[in-house]
Amino acid sequence: MMVFLLDLLGNLVLLQGTKVYYLWGSLVLLQGTKAHHLEAHLSGMLVAHQAL
Question: Which of 15, 27, 49, 52 is most exposed, with minimal Cβ within 10 Å?
C-alpha cells in the first residue's frame, strides 16, 4: 500500500516509486499503466482513488 500526504505548503511528505505530475491543484500519479488521481480534501490530505 502506498500513502501520499500533502502538507499545507503543498509539499509531498511521503512518496514511493512513482512519477508525480502536479496538474491544476490535483496530483496525477502514473504507475506502470495505472493512473491514480488524488483529490485534495479539506484536511489538506490526499486520498487515492483507483479502479479495481
Answer: 52
